[in-house]
# Entry
Amino acid sequence: MKTRFSQVFLRDGGVIRRIVGVMGVGVGDVFFEVGPGIGALTFPIMESGARVIAVEIDGFLCMALRRKGVDVVCGDYLKVDTEEILAERGVGGKVRFFSSVPYHITHDVILKVFSERHLFRDVHLILQREVAQKLLSAPKSKSYGPFSIITSVLFEGRYLMGIPNRAFSPVPKVHSALIRLIPREENLALDVEEFLGFLKVPFKSRRKKIKNTLRNAPKDIADLRPEDVPPDTWLKVFESIS
# Structure
C-alpha cells in the first residue's frame, strides 16, 4: 500500500487482538486515538464496547472511517485543540489516549501528549522499539537521557509488549513496542518544555561532570555525570534552580 504520510498499518490479526487485550479495553471507556489509519485497532476497540474519538491527517482515510461510523476529526493532531474536541463531544473527565505513532513525528507527538497529560487517564503508545526503551530507560544506561527523565517524572511507565515489523504493512525496517504511561497527579503542573530545555544542557556533554556544564549545580551531584542522577533528583534540581 502506498502511503502519503509515512504510515505503516497493522495487519496481523493475532497482534491486534493481543494489543486490545493488554490495553484492557472496557465497556464505556472513551479513547482518544491519533492516526487510526485504516482502523485496524479502532474497530476492535469499538467492538469491545468503548467509544473512540479519533484524529486522522489523511483526508481519504478520514472520510473512509467516517463512512464506517467512526467519530473522526480530519486534521493534524499537532495543530488541533484536543480539549476543545473532547468538550464539543460532551466528554467529561479523563479519557484514554492511544496512538500508533508515525516514526517521522515521534518527538513532536510525544511532547504534545506529555503536555496534554491532564486530559488522559492513561496513555498507550506504539513506538519504534528503541524509542520505547529510551523513554523507559533507567539511570546509568546508555539510552538514559532527558526523555527518560521526563517520562519517569510525569508518568508511571510500563513496557507492555514487543511488536515485530512483519505485523505491519508496508513492512518497516524497525521493530515496535507498546508502552503504557499513567500520569502522576503530583506533577501535572510541571512545564514539559521548560524541564526538557533544562535537561538538555547537562546531557549535551553527558560524559562531563555536572559542575562543568550546569551553573549552580548542587554539591551532592556536582561531581557526577548526568546519566548517574535519578529522575527525582533532576526534578528537585530543576525546581531549586528555577
User: Anything to note?
Assistant: The first helix runs from residue 13 to 23.
